[in-house]
Amino acid sequence: MRISGFTFVRNAVDLYYPVVESIRSILPICDEVIVAAGDSTDGTTALIRGIDDPKVKIIETVWDRSQFVHGATNAQQTNIALDACTGDWAFYVQADEVVHEEDLPIFVAAMRRHLDDRRVEGLLCDYLHFYGDYDHYQISHGWYRREIRIVRTGIGVRSWKSAQGFRREGEKLPVVRSGGRIFHYGWVRPPQRMTRKTHSFVTLHHGAAAADATFPDRDRAFDYGRLHGRARFAGTHPAVMRARIAAKDWDVTPGTSVQRHDSLRIRLLTFIENRLLGFRLGENRNYIELGS
Q1: d(CA 48, CA 65)
Q2: What is the model's pLDDT at position 98?
Q3: Contact 56, 48 (CB under 8 A)
Q4: 10-residue averages of pLDDT along the chain (292 residues)
Q5: Rounded to 5 degrees, what are φ and ψ at 118?
Q6: Contact 103, 156 (CB under 8 A)
Q7: Which of 44, 17, 46, 48 is nearest to 34 (CA)?
Q8: What whole-number distance in Å separates Cα of residue 203 and Cα of residue 79?
Q9: What Å distances lie between residue 24 and 84, 99, 246, 277, CA to CA?
């Protein structure tokens, strides 16, 4: 069985993406890792070259600003990397997603188990969405608990919309749970870097004018809101993240803005789901889960 890894990235240094840690986290189980490296202005491509592993293959790209609508560039760049994968399975990690070394054998076992079952076109991963710092993660209504991160190659799978998941010919993929975790650090940054990252996100989805209007001062500290809906993390982080976590030099305190998970409605739904039901109401599932 041959395993490809793939990702895309642009300006990871300026926007504080742990892309090197992300790539390194899956390298041990991959025969290759394809990186669609956009036209960065902060040395990101050189940083990736510095990984200095022959399994890392860089495709240099130029981001098309006409695709800065609803995150279409994210899917386009993801597909560039996916199309270059030569494995039986392709393991996708975004630049702010890291895999724990304890879960690597879990992922490999799941891929082996379903290699010859052609009904299975992808594998689901469980998510830990860290928010504000490395000690808390989100358990609020609306934060997705699982997503496809491993797809079968050679069947026409494409990145879907803003590259959160995958589909084939516009249809949801039939998938099974892998049992492995993705550590998502997209909301863990120094507050000023979080503002710049969010400005970049709005630019990719709604254009530069909308981003500038929303964030006229890109250097101001991001308001993380009232910090509702978080649980304390009692486990260990991936080993590749140790240096970055040790270098953390900021604190996040409750702010004045009302983020979505701070609203009374979401807090009530979260209580009902976590304390009474044990499942998410109206959860968005961009996949068809098969029986194990």
Answers
A1: 23
A2: 98
A3: yes
A4: 98 97 98 98 97 97 87 94 98 98 98 98 98 96 95 97 92 98 97 92 88 86 92 98 96 89 90 87 90 68
A5: -70, -10
A6: no
A7: 48
A8: 20
A9: 19, 9, 18, 38
Beta bridge partners of 230: 138
CA nearest neighbour of 173 among 192, 191, 155 = 155
Tokens of residue 177, six digits = 């749970």
Residues 174 and 132: their CA atoms lie apart, in Å, by 34
Q: What's the angle, vertex CA 84, arms to CA 82 and CA 89, rounded to 5?
A: 55
**Amino acid of residue 73:** T
Residue 58 makes CB contacts below 8 A (sequence gap 6+) with: 35, 37, 45, 48, 49
Which pair of tokens denotes residue 284?
């968005």
**3-state DSSP call for residue 164?**
coil
* Helix (H) or strand (E) run with residue 148 in it: strand 146-152
Q: Hey, what amino acid is at 225?
A: G
Give residues with Cβ within 8 angstroms of 158, minimum separation 6. 75, 79, 82, 166, 167, 168
pLDDT score, position 292: 58
Tell me which residue of 84, 76, 91 sits closest to 10, measured CA to CA.
76
- In angstroms, what CA-CA distances link 238 with 25, 159, 182, 211? 8, 26, 10, 33
d(CA 234, CA 134): 10
State the sign of the Cα–Cα–Cα–Cα dihedral 240, 244, 246, 248.
negative
Q: Residue with structure tokens 């200095």? A: 52
Mind giving me the DSSP string for 8-68? EESSTTTTT--HHHHHHHHGGG-SEEEEEE---SSSHHHHHHTT--TTEEEEE----GGG-
> Tokens at residue 213, please?
């209007």
